[in-house]
Amino acid sequence: MKLFKKESKIEKEEYFSFCVEGIYKHKNGELFVLGIVDGIIQKLDSLFLIGPYGYEEKVEIQEWIEVDSKQNYYALLIDQRFQEEIDQGYIFTNKNNHLATSREEVYNPYLQFLLDQVNRQHYDYLDILFEQLATRAYFLAVFDYQDFPIYQINDKKYYPIYTSQLEMNKDQKCKNKKGSVYSFTFLIFIHF
Fold first, then answer.
1. E-assigned strands of 9-113?
2. In terms of DSSP bridges, do strands 17-25 and 138-141 run parallel, antiparallel, or are they unpaired?
3. Strand, helix or coil at 152?
4. Rg of the chain (C-alpha set)
């Protein structure tokens, strides 16, 4: 379910994330934030800092430092006032976590990060993942009741939901279909 790709150009829908792994005081009073970039790096002047339980803030980036480009390790210098607000497991990303104006712009950057961590067997992220799923994420689903993309495992049928238009486009059953935007709260009340 990993969304990030190492490609030669940035598509309109793509975003990247900088996953915080360490935070250190820098000699000039800034914070030195070490992390791994997922996706194609864009050395922007500001990024969205997203953390658990709805924390989100736009942050000015004072400097990008290449630590190990082969491993996608970078560091950011940011204002020291974020020392109390940032922790390991937060991400910096070029897209915010809010619902955009159209289905093509549905992003769930923090959810993608959490899913990736759980897929790597970092189960300490499970509580935050479930909270994010239930209260802060938006999904795309195809609910047209004609030629419905249904997945069946044994005797149970499943109706897929997607975390972004990119993910939906990967599913051959959903090619050329329009998705509608739903929250998890709405999805659990749908009865088929």
1. 17-25, 31-38, 46-50, 56-68, 73-78, 91-93
2. unpaired
3. strand
4. 18
Question: Are the C-beta atoms of residues 86 and 20 closer than 8 Å to each other?
Answer: yes
Residue 81 CA to residue 25 CA, distance in Å, equals: 11
| Structure-model confidence comparison of residues 109 and 104, the more confident one | 109
- pLDDT for 130-167, tens place per residue? 888 877 777 888 766 566 667 778 888 777 888 877 78
pLDDT in tens, 40-74: 778 889 999 998 888 889 999 999 999 988 888 89
**Helix, strand or coil for residue 113?**
helix
76-81: long-range contacts, CB 8 A cutoff, minimum separation 24: 76/18, 76/32, 76/33, 76/35, 77/26, 77/30, 77/31, 77/32, 77/33, 78/30, 78/31, 78/33, 79/30, 79/31, 80/25, 80/29, 80/30, 80/31
Q: Quote the tokens at residue 162.
A: 């997607």
Q: How far apart are CA 4 and CA 16, in angstroms?
A: 7
Tokens 């499943």 -> residue: 158
